[in-house]
Amino acid sequence: MKKIYALAKVLTASLFLFSCVSKKQFQAAEAKYAQLNGSYLDQQAKLRDCEANLRNITDKNAELMRQRGLLEDNVNNLNKQIDFLKQNNNQVLGQLKDLSVISSSQAESIKKSLESIGMKDAYIQDLQGAISRKDSLNMALVMNLKGAIGNLDDKDINIKVDKGVVYIDISDKLLFKSGSFDITDRATEVLGKVAKVLANQPEIEFMVEGHTDSVDFKGNNLLLDNWDLSVKRATSVVRMLQKKYGIEPKRMTAAGRAQYVPVSENVTENGRAANRRTRIVVLPQLDQFFKLLEPKR
After folding, report:
1. Is the residue at 36 inside a domain?
2. What is the pLDDT of residue 264?
């Protein structure tokens, strides 16, 4: 009887030990699975970011190709003018081959024609260089903004270049509550990231535009209509950029566009949501462009 009892104790201990070892292995496997699943989700998020960046770069490349086509047309026209001047010079020189003496007026005319050709060549080079520098600065600004903002949903914030102008569209659900122009706590994070990039480019001026959908705003004691709401939202953003993030007020302009510049149809909820946005427009530096057009002295 004692032998049977002892044997039962041994079997019981063995089963207990086996149960403990299996539970530890199962917990370890669960931990490993959680780690691998977390890594997989991170990689999926990075993949989505890469795909979004690729789409934006593709759009930018298409715009650059269009601008390049326009520039090439300008260059071709200027080259035609240069060829015409060269032909005139050749004709003049041909007429003077048999002459032993060139009059002072003829010599001065030839000199001016040659100088004109040189000035046009220099102008083309300056124009090409300015356009290249502008495109490079815009691309650097866009990439810096995308890097600062991170992996926010593209539906909520969109950064693009259109006809040489940088646009930052931020969905109103990130900034305001419905029918309000008070900036939410979540908005401070988004605006802080944008402000950091803009602060590092002190020569850039920009406009903050408020946009609404086409649903009539009934008004209250503070607001009259969509015009009023869009302007108030723009000034709220401008004030925060100035007071909280130290952006110089002389660099900013606040504007309200109401429902009159939509990016989508207002017939669906998704379309109306896309139209409810705050847009930051990086203004082109027209003074630098016009300097290129001034005659050289």
Report:
1. no
2. 92
Mean pLDDT by 10 residues, the chain (297 residues): 56 52 77 84 80 75 75 82 79 60 65 66 59 62 70 70 86 89 88 89 92 84 89 96 94 95 93 93 66 51
- Quick one: three-class SS letters along the chain? CHHHHHHHHHHHHHHHHHHHHHHHHHHHHHHHHHHHHHHHHHHHHHHHHHHHHHHHHHHHHHHHHHHHHHHHHHHHHHHHHHHHHHHHHHHHHHHCCCCCCCCHHHHHHHHHHHHHHHHHHHHHHHHHHHHHHHHHHHHHHHHHHHHHHCCCCCCCEEEEEECCEEEEEEEHHHHECCCCCCECHHHHHHHHHHHHHHHCCCCCCEEEEEECCCCCCCCCCCCCCHHHHHHHHHHHHHHHHHHCCCCCHHHEEEEEEECCCCCCCCCCHHHHHHHCEEEEEECCCHHHHHHHHCCCC
pTM value?
0.54
Give a yes or no: residue 173 inside a domain. yes
| 35 located within any domain | no
**pLDDT the model gives residue 189:** 85
Phi-psi region of 216 (alpha: psi -120 to 50; beta: other; left: phi over 0): beta
Question: How many domains is the chain partitioned into structurally?
Answer: 1
Ramachandran class of 99: left when φ > 0, alpha when ψ lies in -120 to 50, beta otherwise: beta
Return the pLDDT at 100.
47
Query: What residue numbers bound the domain in which 236 lies?
Result: 152-297
